[in-house]
Amino acid sequence: MNTTLATENDLGEREASFHDAWATGTDVNDVRVIEAFEGPTALENAFILRKMGSLQGKRLLDIGAGLGESSVYFALKGAQVTVVDISPRMVATALSLGQKFGVELDGVVSSAESLNVSPESYDIVYAANTLHHVQDRALFFEQLRSALKTGGMFFSYDPLAYNPAINAYRRMATEVRTPDEAPLTTADIKLAGQYFEGVQHREFWISALTLFVKYYALDRVHPNEDRYWKRILKETDRQLAWWKPLRAMDALLTRLPLIRWLAWNVVVWGHKPETQKS
Predict the structure, then answer these.
(1) In Å, how far from its chain's centre is CA 60?
(2) How far apart are alpha carbons 245 and 248 in whole angstroms?
(3) Displacement of CA 223 from its chain's centroid (Å)
(4) How far apart are CA 154 and CA 45, in angstroms?
(5) Quick one: which of 59, 63, 206, 226 could link to 127 by a disulfide (CB 3.0–4.6 Å)?
(6) Starting from the edge strand earliest in sequence, which strands make up the sheet with 106-109, in order?
């Protein structure tokens, strides 16, 4: 047996099983679609939306769609959305969420490294919190490029590897994340440039991470009791009056060389070139 193939299959099965259990334990009525893009803490998605422009009539592939917040939101904005996830139950949950919001989605159960979709069919590929679950990241970018039409755009965002506070949080949050995931490094961003043109990146959450400290130290919520990256979507403008100056401070900090790499998340984007890069 090919040991590498066996390992990849094991990883895929662990990822699918973990996310199947998450989907099974989630009520679609608790999934926050609008807040995930328009809430005060939706910094990455708000930025991505501005870069995407109008979605009316666009074919959009949502890779690692999870519970379906992004897929449904994009469909509400007029996109024709294909939901992709390695977890069958996540795909089913996303389709159910679409029905709740009155939008039609296509669903595909597939890993990110082996997309089961038609090549050169999509105007936009979106992958949120997906790449850090992927082992073969070169193959991931190759699959994204294959799915896109010439000139089509990809957008992703994932956690970075360098912030000690986030790394401490990750060591504590063992029950709400998979053991095989690995946050991004600068090498991953450089790798994207081998497959796409105009690759850029933008970092988010340095001072703003004080919100996580509040959850743990003041609210006494252990990282295994609630997914902090979902909990932030429940916050309102009024509740975050104290936090907004920290968010504003990050507008500067996340543009400083070296300091920017201490951010929690990074958004990466680029477009498919007319001729394939080797």
Answers:
(1) 15
(2) 5
(3) 19
(4) 13
(5) 63
(6) 106-109, 80-85, 59-63, 122-128, 148-159, 265-271, 197-204
Q: What pLDDT is stored for residue 143 in this prediction?
A: 96
pLDDT digits (tens, 9 = 90+) for 219-260: 999 999 999 999 999 999 999 999 999 999 999 999 999 999
d(CA 229, CA 237): 17
- C-alpha to C-alpha distance for 34 and 12, rounded to whole angstroms: 30
- Map residue 81 onto helix, strand or coil: strand
Look-up of token digits 């477009």? 271
**Using only C-alpha atoms, what is the Rg of the chain?**
18
Between the CA of residue 127 and those of 68, 139, 141, 245, 247, what are the distances in Å? 12, 14, 11, 29, 24
Distance CA 199, CA 1 (A): 38
How many other C-beta atoms lie within 10 A of the C-beta of residue 190? 10
Q: H or E element: which one contains 70?
A: helix 69-76
C-beta of residue 265 within 8 angstroms of C-beta of residue 199: no
Residue closest to 271 by CA, chosen among 180, 154, 100, 126: 154
| pTM listed for this prediction | 0.93
Q: Distance between CA atoms of 36 and 80, rounded to whole angstroms?
A: 19
Q: What is the distance between the alpha carbons of residues 210 and 184, in angstroms, rounded to a whole number?
A: 21
In degrees, rounded to 5, the angle at the alpha carbon of residue 169 between the alpha carbons of residues 163 and 172 is 145
Identify the residue whose tokens are 């469909």: 75
Q: Where does the pLDDT of residue 179 fall: very low under 50, low under 70, confident under 90, or very high at 90 and above? A: confident
